[in-house]
Design goal:
The chain is an alpha/beta fold. It has twelve helices and 14 strands. The N terminus and C terminus are likely disordered.
């Protein structure tokens, strides 16, 4: 996406995460033949290159990118697990290279693996153990454990053996464990990848309501899941080959990176005026097929409209005036794979952007 598509942030609040010109390289493992032929050789792979980003307090920020794009490396730098080669990374105004202990008190990566829990003991005992690792003792430890269980909705089942928990309950317990230290920032790496669709939806609601709205935590979320992006993220950033190509409010980035496509149902799928009316609205019919058997006689028509909502409203009016019945006129969301492909393709063609690649916080309205 061209740099002109990227807006500047609001100056009304200090970012909780501030990244400037972050670059990280790793030495490439060499084979025996190459080591013999080039004994002094040294090959480096760039995992992150000149990344600039601000994340505001209380924001859900989604980090998108294909495998190998640099998401995990960025998370490891933030969590002080690896050091940057160039640039500056701050959390809560503190540089990650100068005071990593302070960073770890403010920022916690949530390990998605359920195997990091102790399955043979209760949820409460799991949290007591990690409270001790945080240096919490006595009444303060008990208070934090009770608080964490309440937040993640496991207080009534805290005495239950973790091995008997569902996957969704285990994921909640992992979040509760991370909240013991009352961090300001959480790093989540594909938190619903092991959950079924219903459990994933409930877990997303839990993250939005209990972690985001009630706790006010800032969440950085690495994901490939479309529902996680659209339901949780206030803004998203697209990483490709270590470069941050685009950052913006979720709805804006999805809309600007797509040719708007819509689908509507009609019993007049073969009407002679259908395609001309779509063309007059500036669109084109890209697919026409019969609806499922339980809706016999109806057709599903997919169209592409570059004018977006204005073109859709104009077309719908024209169809009704022409006597073509219409049902379920809906806009299709751009698949994340398409978004990543388009933004990455545009970014590789663009000149390197100068200055920070940023966008304002744009908190979404709760409904």
């Amino acid at each position: 996406m061209p740099a002109s598509h990227i807006a500047e942030p609001s100056a009304s609040s200090e970012p909780v995460v501030r990244i400037r010109s972050l670059t990280k390289r790793f030495r490439v493992q060499r084979g025996w033949k190459d080591m013999v032929l080039r004994p002094g050789g040294r090959d480096l792979r760039t995992a992150l290159e000149g990344v600039n980003l601000d994340v505001q307090p209380g924001e859900f920020f989604g980090l998108l990118g294909q495998n190998g794009a640099g998401k995990s490396t960025l998370f490891k730098v933030l969590a002080t697990l690896i050091l940057p080669d160039e640039g500056q990374v701050q959390v809560g105004g503190i540089d990650v290279t100068r005071d990593p202990a302070a960073i770890r008190r403010m920022l916690v990566p949530v390990i998605p693996s359920e195997r990091s829990l102790y399955w043979r003991v209760s949820a409460r005992e799991n949290l007591r153990l990690y409270a001790a690792l945080h240096g919490l003792k006595g009444s303060e430890a008990a208070k934090r454990v009770d608080e964490a269980l309440q937040v993640v909705g496991l207080h009534d089942t805290g005495g239950k053996q973790v091995g008997l928990f569902s996957s969704g309950m285990k994921q909640r317990l992992l979040i509760g464990r991370a909240l013991l230290g009352r961090p300001r920032v959480l790093l989540l790496d594909e938190p619903t990848r092991s959950l079924d669709p219903v459990s994933a939806r409930e877990f997303r609601r839990f993250l939005r309501d209990r972690v985001g709205r009630d706790r006010g935590a800032t969440v950085l979320l690495a994901t490939h899941d479309h529902e996680e992006v659209t339901e949780l993220c206030d803004r998203v950033g697209v990483l490709d080959q270590g470069r941050l190509l685009a950052v913006g409010p979720t709805e804006v980035l999805l809309a600007e990176s797509a040719e708007r496509s819509y689908e509507f149902w009609t019993p007049a799928g073969d009407h002679p005026r259908l395609e001309p009316l779509v063309a007059e609205a500036g669109g084109v019919v890209i697919a026409r097929r019969e609806a499922p058997a339980e809706t016999e006689g109806w057709h599903r028509v997919r169209i592409r409209l570059p004018l977006g909502e204005e073109g859709a409203a104009r077309l719908l009016t024209s169809l009704v005036v022409a006597g073509i019945p219409v049902s379920r006129f809906t806009r299709d969301d751009l698949a994340l794979a398409d978004l990543l492909q388009r933004v990455s393709a545009n970014g590789r063609e663009d000149v390197e952007p100068t200055g920070p690649v940023l966008a304002g916080p744009g908190r979404r309205n709760e409904t």
